Amino acid sequence: MTVPFWAWVAVLGVILAMLAVDLLAHRRTPVVGVRSALAWSGAWVVLGLAFGAVVWWVWGAEFAGQYFAGYVIEKSLAVDNVFVFAIIFGYFAVPREYQHRILFYGVIGALVFRAVFIAAGSVLIASFSWILYVFGAFLVVTGIRMARHRDETVDYEQNRVLRLFRRIVPSTDGDHGGKFLVRQAGRWVATPLLTVLVLIEVTDVVFAVDSIPAIFAVTQEPFLVFTSNAFAVLGLRAMYFLLADVMHRFVYLKVGLALVLVWVGVKMLLLDIWKIPTALSLGVVAAILATAVAASLIRTRTPVSPKG
Fold first, then answer.
1. Are the C-beta atoms of residues 185 and 194 closer than 8 Å to each other?
2. pLDDT tens, residue by residue, 208-259
3. What is the pTM of this model?
4. Sign (positive/negative) of CA torsion 137, 139, 142, 143?
5. What is the 3-state secondary structure of 106-171?
């Protein structure tokens, strides 16, 4: 797959432009309602699918299939990000009007971290082809661990990075009008909002470690790896506000995501035995996620009270 330099520049330009639009659109209304979140989520999905159509037109069906497979995998794993973000916001009692700012910077951090990991992964694969088997084994183990520990609660106060941050950076309590830093006694100190942002960025790193090997299972083309990640992550903020009030209903989604990781890990381990077609891989991922969502909605549906 030959990608000219201008194509990279154009994609980065589109991403930066959409980030700017996203920020400006919610400057005056930081509390995003369900209707607005639904509209923005739809817009992000349309944008991601439209780019896939461009890939199909320029580079052909096979590369488009790889992009769509990667996009679906990354979009589904982004839902897990959303769950964790909701837990963090609830744990630290972050007001809803401040959540948009944190998520915006979280999306930027996610794009940067994924770009770094994609570059590193591409170099490793080009230098050591056997690293794909390491990625595959890692994904299988990660999927099994996710399924086994899906109901565990996390004490974020014991997070090592957070404790180190608080030890190094002086902090203050209270609501400071959505600011990350305030000046007290002649020095800058971190507000609770900055503490939450640091934790969100650390979470982005953890998810990047899981998601980047997963995308390499369906394509090793750096352009497709980056763009499928980027267009999936761009809709993360809108997805959060869309799903924030109904997350409790997706009780089996964690199991579904775990199975997706195991599936793509096995696919990677079988590269020299059987190269699973992209269409089949995409179909299996879609079937797993659809089953997990349907089972969750059936399990948590509200029973109809008998009349009379």
1. no
2. 777 778 888 788 888 998 899 888 888 788 888 877 767 777 788 888 888 8
3. 0.80
4. negative
5. HHHHHHHHHHHHHHHHHHHHHHCCCHHHHHHHHHHHHHHHHHHCCCCCCCHHHCHHHHHHHHHCCE
